[in-house]
Write a structure and sequence with these properties.
single chain; mainly alpha; 5 helices; about 0% strand; globular
């Protein structure tokens, strides 16, 4: 699941989604307005897939679901609230950060 070929294919999927124009095709179910709203994040995911060497299997799985699952991805299913798209992208960003990168705020 973590092979280079799989990662390259997912990176290409992220770039295709990010590069969609405003005119939807009758041959795709991608929600173009949502993809356009998160274009930078999709391009960032593509770069991570191509260059990071230590991605967790769950991160790859969640990325695959976001980019390819027509039923459960907020990029494809209008019945899934757009907030789920932002939550998924947040999870993907936090999930690949090294431990300790985010500061722990002490109470008080």
């Amino acid at each position: 699941m973590l092979g280079r070929r799989t990662r390259r294919r997912l990176a290409a999927s992220a770039r295709r989604a990010a590069g969609c124009g405003p005119r939807p095709s009758r041959h795709t179910v991608l929600l173009h307005e949502r993809a356009a709203a998160v274009k930078e994040e999709l391009l960032e995911i593509a770069l991570v897939l191509e260059h990071a060497g230590d991605l967790d299997a769950s991160w790859i799985s969640e990325t695959r679901k976001l980019l390819t699952d027509g039923c459960d991805s907020p990029l494809y299913n209008r019945d899934i609230h757009v907030s789920e798209l932002w939550a998924t992208l947040y999870y993907l960003r936090v999930g690949r950060e090294p431990a300790g990168k985010f500061p722990v705020l002490a109470p008080g």
